[in-house]
Design brief:
Length: 585
């Protein structure tokens, strides 16, 4: 019995020990799990299913549409400080598209130029008369006729040539006694391009010709008839233009920013719609040293052999040239839609993981614009994947997560989803580009450009009101003011912003649809904001505002004199949709 009591005590002590262990270690485990969950919840981000660029650290309503925010998938622990991640659903809703740099190597660095076939001016001849008179008979009746060298073109009655023939016959009768006079009369006829054979014929027959023939000096095609039968002509007057079309010129326009990419001797492949299955190899023969001040282009020329007459003057052609870098390698290029501008700084968004929607901003150094592409001198390499559609949406997501972005060079967490009832607001004091990456505009440019802003704001307000006619009126007004801006001392990049703005204002003024005006307004703003960001001594602050849903959900910006959002891309349909992106003070 005593022994049994002892075992009971042992069993009781063991049970008490197990119970104490469960309380101590079990509670500790639960406490760790609870703390882990708290950390996870603290790092949880929330987004809007309709506006995936919205990213907040706590649940709530979307500041744009008011919908409930949904949690973002976690799994960002391995991201670098400059990287951020979006959900697959967000990518699909925002229509984000990417492409691989240099993926199509066969087309990399290729520039296509539009041009026109013109006559080879070096092979053109103007047929003139060498004596005055009246056109008695014209044997060439229309342009486009083929003529051969020595062919009879016209016959002319010439009173002075009639008198000169009489002098010849008189001098011929006394040539033995006055050889110098005889020689002088013959030379006079030779100066009028009368041949030795013709002179001898007159002298031998003793008959004076009333009408003298005019023969073609060259073979070719009559490109212009300058006289009609029965007209009077004077000595040296053109009567026909004859073009030798066995060779022709193909003239192409190249933009000012592209000039240094072209050199004489470069190979160029010429194609035309008339012969779609054919291509013609040639070389750059001439680059015009004078810039066309109106179009900001120079003419590039190549000479084409045309023995079969395939090329007709006035025919449109396309020239393809493979550009090369200084070291002989093909240039790396990206679509212009992938590049975002802020002052002198150009950025793209790189998808760092092919399998996951992870992005980071990358600053790039651009070279020349090659059609719809930019040459990338530094910052990207072949094989990297970049965002080509929806760059503004990606940039907005980066800003909202406090990452490096177009307007936030260093990346910080100072932005809050509740700064503004319409969305995010970035104070201008946090924008480093305002002090470090300015375009250097002259005082003359600054003073002449500021009235452009006043006219532009009227244009923007007309779009807010969805007024098609007033939008066109204010586009014309802004265009007139913009053309008066002092362009002296502008660099290529600065001038390109100005030229693109003029093009877009022209397009807005001529558009007969409101949606087209708003589409052109997108590109206008990209250039206007780049210029406005570098103006100094503004009388009032300007607000750069952003709508993530405009431009087919790619996002678009505009300038406003008021902080309150009044959306020019949607008007009354979504008047308050948007946010203040930055302040130009």
């Amino acid at each position: 019995m005593k022994e049994m009591k002892k075992y009971i005590v042992y069993i009781g002590v063991l049970a008490i020990g197990l119970l104490l262990g469960w309380f101590l270690f079990g509670n500790s485990s639960n406490e760790v799990d609870h703390n882990h969950n708290e950390v996870t919840e603290a790092n949880q981000m929330w987004t809007c299913s309709m506006h995936p660029q919205i990213m907040q650290s706590e649940p709530g309503d979307c500041p744009i549409c008011g919908m409930d925010l949904i949690p973002v998938d976690s799994g960002m622990d391995d991201l670098s400080p400059d990287q951020f991640q979006l959900t697959e659903n967000a990518l699909a809703l925002a229509n984000i598209q990417t492409s691989v740099v240099g993926f199509d190597s066969s087309d990399n660095g290729v520039v296509r130029l539009s041009g026109k076939i013109v006559e080879n001016e070096e092979a053109n001849v103007v047929q003139v008369t060498y004596f005055s008179g009246r056109i008695e008979r014209l044997y060439v009746n229309s342009t486009g006729e083929q003529v051969r060298k020595g062919q009879l073109l016209a016959s002319i009655y010439s009173p002075e040539l009639f008198a000169a023939q009489q002098e010849l016959l008189t001098a011929s009768s006394i040539k033995e006694s006055q050889p110098e006079l005889y020689k002088a009369v013959r030379n006079k006829l030779k100066l009028w391009k009368i041949s030795e054979k013709q002179i001898d014929q007159i002298e031998t027959s003793g008959e004076i010709k009333e009408n003298f023939p005019v023969y073609a000096n060259v073979s070719g095609t009559v490109s212009e008839k300058l006289i009609e039968q029965g007209e009077s002509v004077s000595s040296g007057q053109p009567i026909l233009k004859i073009a030798d079309l066995s060779t022709v010129w193909a003239n192409f326009d190249i933009y000012e920013s592209q000039i240094d990419q072209f050199k004489t001797g470069q190979e160029i492949i010429v194609t035309t719609n008339a012969y779609k299955s054919k291509s013609f190899n040639s070389k750059v023969d001439f680059i015009d040293p004078v810039l066309n001040a109106k179009t900001r282009t120079v003419t590039l020329r190549t000479v084409l052999r045309n023995p079969e007459g395939e090329f007709k003057p006035g025919m449109f052609v396309e020239g393809t040239i493979q550009l090369m870098t200084d070291n002989g390698n093909k240039v790396v290029r990206v679509p212009s839609s992938a590049v975002m501008w802020t002052g002198k700084r150009s950025v793209v968004y790189v998808k760092t993981d092919p399998q996951s929607p992870i992005f980071e901003m990358r600053e790039v150094t651009l070279g020349n614009k090659l059609g719809d592409y930019y040459e990338v001198v530094e910052g990207l390499k072949t094989g990297e994947e970049i965002v080509t559609n929806g760059t503004f949406t990606i940039d907005a997501a980066a800003q909202l997560q406090g990452k490096k972005s177009m307007m936030n060079k260093s990346g910080d967490k100072t932005m809050s989803g509740h700064d503004d009832h319409n969305g995010m607001t970035e104070k201008n004091g946090s924008d480093p580009d305002k002090t470090t990456t300015k375009m250097e505009f002259s005082d003359a440019f600054q003073s002449t450009f500021k009235p452009v802003i006043t006219s532009y704001l009227k244009l923007k307000d007309a779009l807010v009101e969805s007024d098609l006619e007033q939008t066109a009126v204010f586009a014309k007004e802004t265009l007139i003011v913009l053309k008066k801006v002092d362009q002296n001392d502008l660099k290529a990049m600065e001038r390109s912003h100005l030229t693109k703005s003029i093009d877009m204002l022209n397009a807005i003024a001529k558009s007969d649809k409101l949606e087209d005006q708003r589409a052109f307004f997108v590109t206008l703003n990209e250039n206007m904001v780049a210029i406005a960001n570098n103006l100094i001594a503004l009388e009032n602050a300007l607000y750069v505002q952003f709508c993530p849903m405009a431009n087919d959900n790619k996002g678009a910006i505009w300038i406003s004199a008021d902080k309150e959002i009044r959306n020019p891309y949607y008007g009354d349909a979504m008047l308050k949709c948007g946010s203040v992106k930055s302040i130009i003070d």
